Amino acid sequence: MLRGCDLPDEVVHFLAQHIPSNIRDLEGALNRVIMSSELYGEPVTIERSSEWLKDVLRMDVKAPVTVEDIQSVVAEYFSMSPEELTSSKRTAELAMARQIAMFLCCEMTETSLLRIAHAFRKKDHTTVIHARKKISELVKTDQEVRRAVDNLKNRL
Q1: CA atoms of 102 and 113, how far apart (whole Å)
Q2: What phi and psi, each to the nearest 5 degrees, are found at residue 90?
Q3: Closest CA to 148 of 133, 121, 156, 65
Q4: pLDDT value at residue 60
Q5: φ and ψ at 30, to 5 degrees?
Q6: What is the rounded CA–CA span in Å between residue 67 and residue 62?
Q7: Phi (first) and psi of residue 5, to 5 degrees
Q8: How much is the CA Rg of the chain, to the nearest whole Å?
Q9: Which residue intervals define the domain Chromosomal replication initiator DnaA C-terminal in the entry (predicted)?
Q10: SS3 string of 44-57?
Q11: Which of 34, 75, 86, 95 minimizes the number of CB atoms within 10 Å of its CB?
């Protein structure tokens, strides 16, 4: 019971999962559900709540992207194995794929630069910094690189 309205636990859990930002947004959503229930004279259910809040619910909740996910998707995209991607080989194609993967790791994960470096069998974070700078510039000037980065982000 919240503010005189019977709010089932499953609705509360549903809202907590699908209101992505903060407690104020969650409180606003709860208020809106309660007011809609009173206005329409309908009981609070997950179905009704999702209808009343369709503009604010985030239904695409996915697991966070990991460095390993990025390595796997980038390797597949460039037709190589994840082991090749993290190898010490320095062919132009491998180096570009590796730099794009490091760039995506910086962009799409909360992983530290040092951990990203270690995931690519590099000694320190400076390689990751270089990759991030280089791909950032190439995305602005090279359509092929931009297209590859966009396609990879969509796959992830």
Answers
A1: 9
A2: -125, 35
A3: 156
A4: 54
A5: -60, -45
A6: 15
A7: -120, 135
A8: 22
A9: 66-135
A10: CCHHHHHHHCCCCC
A11: 95
pTM: 0.63
Please check whether residue 108 is in contact with residue 153, taking contact to mean a CB–CB distance below 8 angstroms: yes
Query: Strand locations in the chain, DSSP E?
Result: none
Q: What pLDDT, on the 0 to 100 scale, is given for residue 102? A: 97
Contact criterion met (CB below 8 Å) for 119 and 82: no
From residue 156, how far is each of 94, 125, 142 by CA, in Å? 20, 23, 21
Q: Residue 7 is encoded by which pair of tokens?
A: 């709010």
What is the total residue count of the chain? Answer: 156
Concatenated DSSP letters of the chain:
-BTTB---HHHHHHHHHH--S-HHHHHHHHHHHHHHHHHHT----HHHHHHHTTTT------PPP-HHHHHHHHHHHTT--HHHHTSS---HHHHHHHHHHHHHHHHH----HHHHHHHTT-SSTHHHHHHHHHHHHHHHH-HHHHHHHHHHHHH-
